[in-house]
Amino acid sequence: MVDFSSNMLAGLLGFAVISCVTMAMIVKYKLRKRRRSRVTFNLQEPADTVSPQTEAAAPVATYQGKTSLMTRAELAAFRDLYRLLRRQAYICPMVRIADLIEVEAGGDRSAWQSAFNKISAKHVDFAIINLAGDILFAVEVDDASHDRADRKTRDALVDQVFAEAGIPLVRVKPGDVSASEPLARTLAAFFPDEDPLQKAA
Fold first, then answer.
1. How many CA atoms lie within 13 A of 50 on its CB side?
2. Strand-by-strand arrangement of the 89-96 sheet
3. How do strand 135-141 and strand 89-96 relate by DSSP bridges?
4. Is the pLDDT of residue 195 over 80?
5. How far apart are CA 90 and CA 132, in angstroms?
6. Calpha distance 144→141 (Å, rounded)
7. Alpha-carbon distance 152 to 130, whole Å?
8. Does the structure show a pLDDT above 80 at 5?
9. Where are the beta strands (DSSP E) in the chain?
10. By Cβ atoms counted within 10 A, which residue in 123, 127, 129, 153 is the most buried?
């Protein structure tokens, strides 16, 4: 009887131990699963992130076409240049200086970038090219805006750049461009057989 009771007690104890271990493993598994679900939730939607449904729509920038490429003064100058240069050259308005002039810095990347940045966002009003596509000279229409201090600083830099590059830059005043003496001298240099004043008439 004693042996039977001892065996039974030992069996019950063994069963209890196995049950406790099993329950511990189940609880540990559930806790681990819950932690994983919390981590996944936090990665998908952090607490400081505003839901797209509740966040107000952010302003969106749009692109709109301009009605004109040139100002009135530039358009008047373009027409005068067309009368002077027709059948001899092409007039290209609003040309980026960096498309007319290259930067040489002897392999010094930093020096090249610094020089390029000075001209990369600047334009001239007109670039004049011959019928073969060669660059002849550039034209700037100096309206009242060129009297500002910042424009004078910009114009001085542009003059220096074109002088270094060996490309003539002609500055004209708004109005009758054909009456500009600097332009007449430049045209005579490139087209010695033509009389620009007679063509403009």
1. 7
2. 89-96, 123-130, 135-141, 169-172
3. unpaired
4. no
5. 10
6. 10
7. 30
8. no
9. 89-96, 123-130, 135-141, 169-172
10. 127
pTM: 0.67
Query: Is the separation of the CB atoms in 82 and 108 below 8 Å?
Result: no
Find the angle CA(157)-CA(158)-CA(159) to the nearest 5 degrees.
90
pLDDT digits (tens, 9 = 90+) for 73-116: 999 999 999 999 988 999 999 999 999 999 999 999 999 999 99
- Residue bearing tokens 């008439």: 201
- Segment 81-88 long-range contacts (CB within 8 Å, at least 24 positions apart): 81/126, 81/128, 81/139, 81/177, 83/178, 83/199, 83/200, 84/177, 84/178, 84/183, 84/187, 84/196, 84/199, 84/200, 85/128, 85/187, 86/199, 88/130, 88/131, 88/191, 88/194
